[in-house]
Design goal:
Distance between the termini: 16 Å
Order of helices and strands: HHHHHHH
Strand content: under 5%
Largest sheet: none
Number of helices: 7
Radius of gyration: 14 Å
Helix content: over 70%
Length: about 130
Amino acid sequence: MEALAAGRAARTVGRATLTTLEQAIAQMQMLSRWREPTREQRFHDADVAFHEGMAMASGSKLLAFVLGGFEQSLRRSFAASYKGYFARGDSFDEVVDAHRAVLQAVRDRDVGGAEKAMRSHLSPGSAV
């Protein structure tokens, strides 16, 4: 569902929404350098903001509603995924890069590329 939303966003995204998505990624990038106890929670906040922003960019009120309703579940899922991801020795940078790839395809209006980048981002064993 999120891959299709990324594709739709590539067709319809406006400047304001691009700015929102860029800000979420900038927040994740900044937090990746932090060593504060609240880093993980704040990183998840920015991650959720990115995915909610992508849903809004797609124009899909249903997806935005579903993501909003499952926010706590998403946070738990992200937390579990990150623990596994970092246990393998990966870094926040790779997670940020996965989000950046989705955003770049959306910015380029590359529908297929946006869908592929989102599927790759969400697939097990990839950068969450």
